[in-house]
Amino acid sequence: MSDVTTIEVSRTLADVTLILAAQGVPESRMNDPRSRRLAEEAQACYARQSAPVGLVADIAREEFGLLYAGEGHNAAQTPLDVIIPQSHVFTLFAVTLGEAVGDEISRLFRQNDFAGGAMLDAAASLGADLAAEEVERHCERQWRLSQRNDSGTAVMRFSPGYCGWHVSGQKKLFARLHPERIGIRLNESCLMQPLKSVSGVIVAAPHSAFHIDDTYSFCAACTTHSCRDRFAALALKPRTDGYRN
Questions:
Q1: How is the chain classified by DSSP, letter by letter?
Q2: CA–CA distance from 171 to each of 3, 179, 184, 200 (Å)?
Q3: How far is CA 167 from CA 72, 122, 160, 178, in A?
Q4: Fold adopted by 2-8+51-98+126-244
Q5: How far is residue 136's CA from residue 166's CA, in Å, rounded to a whole number?
Q6: How far apart are CA 90 and CA 92, in angstroms?
Q7: What pLDDT score was predicted for residue 219?
Q8: Residue 195: is its pLDDT beyond 70?
């Protein structure tokens, strides 16, 4: 499997409450009229400006192992070190929302509309994560159709820059996947442009492979520990698919 996939914008549209939460608005103030109006405007602007698209390409375990090693800067021990030997399907991926939404965020900040810019930035960050989740769902569906994955396994994505996978790993990932096909570039610091882009690998493995504690050395620097929610979500079946190929 290697293809470019259009993602429905509606599948990446974050709920107003999630946008507010991402901006640090406490639950007690979720119904504040001004805050909700800003979040609703950001949501509407995101829907107009975003053009999510994804790219996926299968890769063999041995080849991914070499790609994952990157330039030798990964943490000494990482979750993927444990998961890779137990995984049987690997797919590289990249998603982006396109240039327009990032340009609009920059424009709002230049015009000193900090509230509007920050709210749209939150909506776009959530949207990029939801786009990556859609690609994950797409891969799971394709794997099941091809009988490479079954109900006894789980699917999860990982990205350079997180969970001990050094951000310089983007270099080998880009060399193999070629995300420039969907308009993503890599700068000298290994940051992606447009900024609202996500790349990495999606793996399928037994559920037990993902029973990992967040006690690695790099976990102490993590501000969200969002992996815990993602691990817990593996039990949520069935999953739906919103793709047009």
A1: -EEEEEE-GGGG---HHHHHHHTT--GGGTT-HHHHHHHHHHHHHHHHH---EEEEEE--HHHHHHHHHTTS-S-SS-HHHHHGGG--EEEEEEEE--HHHHHHHHHHHHTT-HHHHHHHHHHHHHHHHHHHHHHHHHHHHHHHHTTS--TTEEEEEE-TTSTT--GGGHHHHHHHH-GGGGT-EE-TTS-EESSSEEEEEEEEEEGGGG---S-SGGGGG-SS-THHHHHHHTT-------EE-
A2: 20, 11, 13, 11
A3: 11, 22, 5, 17
A4: NADH Oxidase (3.40.109)
A5: 21
A6: 7
A7: 86
A8: yes
Asked if residue 225 has pLDDT above 80, the reply is: no
Q: What are the residue boundaries of the structural domains of the chain, listed by start?
A: 2-8+51-98+126-244
Structure confidence at residue 2 (pLDDT): 60
Residue tagged 């340009």 (tokens): 103
Q: How far apart are CA 235 and CA 242, in angstroms?
A: 20
What pTM was estimated for this model as a whole?
0.90
Please give the backbone phi and psi of residue 20, each rounded to the nearest 5 degrees, phi first: -65, -45
pLDDT tens, 21-74?
Answer: 999 999 888 999 999 999 999 999 999 999 999 999 999 999 999 999 999 999
Contact 80, 158 (CB under 8 A): yes
Residue % of the chain over a pLDDT of 90 = 71
225 phi and psi angles, rounded to 5 deg = 50, 40
